[in-house]
Amino acid sequence: MATEGSSGSKKTCDKSFCEDYLLLSPKDVGLFDLIKLPFSKHIGERKFIDCPDGTIEESFSQRFVIFLSIVAQKFLHFIDKPLSWVGSAVEFMPNLMAANGGFFKLLLNTVSGKLVLPDKESPVYLTAIGLWDIRRDLDSKIKNEDPRYTSALAIMAAKAAYENEAYIKETVEKHWEMEFLGFFNCWDDYEEDYTTQGFMWSGKKGDSELIGVCFRGTSPFNGKDWSSDVDLSWYELHGIGKAHAGFLKALGLQSSQGWPNDIQADKQKPYAYYVIRQKLKERLENNPNAKFLVTGHSLGAALSILFPAVLAYHKETDLLSKLEGVYTFGQPRVGDHKFGEYMKEVLVTHGMRYHRFVYCNDLVPRVPFDSSDVYFKHFGDCHYYNSFYKGQVLAEEPNKNYFSILAIIPMFANAIWELFRSFIMYYQNGPEYCETYTCRGWRVIGLLIAGLPAHGPPDYVNLTRLGSPELFITSTVDPSTD
């Protein structure tokens, strides 16, 4: 991509904090303007593309990929409300039955006028993710000294992060017997809304304190959240490379300043990166021997790897020296090759673990697409597990871009096996592996959209519990690998 001359500006905010940028805005697109996109190299003339004045994109295939990204985002925004209605229906009935003590008591309470409506803020209310996998306890068979322990703890945190504060607090304190350090509902300067959530907890790993930071992932019934996964918008930051714009914004990118080292605190509008960084500093001051981990699933996984990237950008070496590792599950691609090289240097310099887990045909780690025409790429090892929970440490997950004619038949055959497996895991592995009706419903959807149910937390919980322990030891990033 190149720029020529200078014309009128479409800037919506000050972008002097970055070297380059490409921002797609599906809400501003018109049909004829969209149709022109693949056939005109002057992409800066399109109303729905915000980029430096005079930007030219010579590659037809790159313009076509942008075209597909816009179409996908428009579709996901279009179905956002229907998806939300479906999600509300999925959540309401199971929670209604639970609040009334089961199906028959629900009928009795309805007839007698004593119907109890579910409270979305109660510690027993479950979101669609919670209904997908109701497990709250850690695996009692995986002890501190087990190589799987930290990963197994991390995915349980990533799963719990989808629930409300009361549920998370009760899970940490009563089910894990650890200390709950706080829930964070954080502001997005661009969306002008509280779109980013997370929590922190503290426990023991051997004789040391291990603090956990977890970011919440994408709601399965939020079309706007899903559109972020196919959005090709990016900012190129000084010394870091290109990083996904939506993920940067969710973490706390300032609309007029980028990533200032410090900002004026606003208790009414906390930004995820800044409020979590401050909480970590305060906690670590009281216990200099403590370590912390960062984890998340889906969108939360993307924020998890961006968090140490910005810490390094701010030269927070003291904090980075305390970072035990980053554990991501179903992580989408976050940045370009330069970003990957930057992060590999950060991880190696500070001796941090980076476990990027990918389960089988999960489609989210395979977006945004990785090709010569797209900037987003994974870096470091992929801890890949098949549908038998057999793991390998690979340079990249198989079928890395999901859409492959050769992979279609194996993917759908695997979806059939996963549905069948959901009925036999109870007998093979014990009652804690009995899948819910909601989970099996997602397995049925997988017969139509292979790889969608594979993104859910249940399989990631299972692979950390059933996977071979020795594979969890491998955690170093080789700076010489792509």
Automatic annotation (TrEMBL):
Q: Which molecular function term from Gene Ontology is one that the record holds?
A: triacylglycerol lipase activity
Domain Fungal lipase-type, by residue range, is 213-370
Q: Which InterPro entries match?
A: AB_hydrolase_fold (IPR029058), Fungal_lipase-type (IPR002921), OBL-like (IPR044819)
Q: What are the protein's UniProt keywords?
A: Hydrolase
Any one biological process term the GO annotation gives? lipid metabolic process
So which domain of life are we looking at?
Eukaryota
Give a yes or no for keyword Hydrolase in this entry: yes
The protein here is known as Fungal lipase-type domain-containing protein
